[in-house]
């Protein structure tokens, strides 16, 4: 009688996910292959978009650096000169240079004459406004004006060149100047008003508002005077 070897139970290997009815990592319940979060077909992670060039140009920066403000102001002046070139395209030649210099000259005049005068007046009302904040607001206003005028330059060139009347060309050119100038003054006054809001008594706030309103009228009158003296297209339309 032969001795029988003891029969040891054989441990069965765990059932695979497919045999157990549980979808494995390579398949979903509907039978389609699943995609790993680290695989090539994984959905891209959403990244925050970077601000555009115009948004960065007009964005408030704190603290504001003199170099950045001067760069922003220079960009605004350069864009405004593009509108001047568009107006000068009607006559060509030397008129191109005259208009390219005349359009941004009003921006420089308001920034160089009007803003310092406004600061002096606000100082009389004990306004908590320092020169760096005023310079930053002026730079943003110049950039806003330049962006508007630079954007209108192609349309202005088309209208002034194809217009059959000098008066119509002058009115169209002046309309674009008015839009850019008004927007620039609005940005400047908005920034200055935000810096003055909530500081001082009611009488001082009323004085601040009167000073800002007077500056708006002065800026419009000064810009029109500079444009009338430097832009031949406006004089040709008045003849």
TrEMBL record:
Q: Where is this region: Disordered?
A: 1-53
Segments spanning the bilayer are 70-89, 101-125, 137-161, 167-189, 201-228
Q: Which UniProt keywords apply?
A: Membrane, Transmembrane, Transmembrane helix
Specify the protein name: Uncharacterized protein
């Amino acid at each position: 009688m032969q001795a029988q070897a003891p029969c040891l139970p054989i441990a069965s290997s765990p059932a695979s996910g497919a045999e157990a009815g549980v979808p494995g990592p390579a398949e979903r319940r509907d039978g389609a292959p699943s995609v790993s979060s680290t695989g090539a077909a994984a959905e891209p992670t959403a990244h925050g978009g970077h601000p555009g060039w115009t948004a960065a140009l007009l964005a408030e920066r704190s603290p504001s650096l003199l170099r950045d403000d001067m760069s922003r102001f220079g960009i605004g002046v350069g864009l405004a000169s593009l509108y001047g070139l568009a107006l000068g395209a009607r006559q060509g030649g030397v008129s191109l240079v005259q208009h390219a210099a005349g359009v941004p000259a009003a921006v420089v005049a308001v920034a160089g004459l009007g803003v310092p005068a406004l600061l002096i007046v606000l100082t009389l009302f004990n306004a908590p406004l320092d020169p760096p904040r005023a310079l930053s607001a002026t730079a943003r206003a110049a950039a806003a004006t330049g962006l508007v005028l630079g954007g209108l330059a192609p349309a202005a060139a088309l209208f002034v060149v194809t217009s059959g009347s000098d008066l119509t060309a002058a009115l169209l050119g002046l309309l674009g100047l008015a839009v850019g100038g008004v927007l620039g003054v609005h940005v400047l006054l908005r920034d200055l008003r935000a810096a003055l809001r909530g500081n001082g008594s009611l009488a001082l706030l009323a004085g601040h508002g009167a000073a800002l309103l007077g500056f708006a009228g002065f800026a419009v009158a000064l810009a029109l005077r500079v444009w009338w003296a430097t832009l031949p297209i406006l004089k040709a339309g008045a003849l």
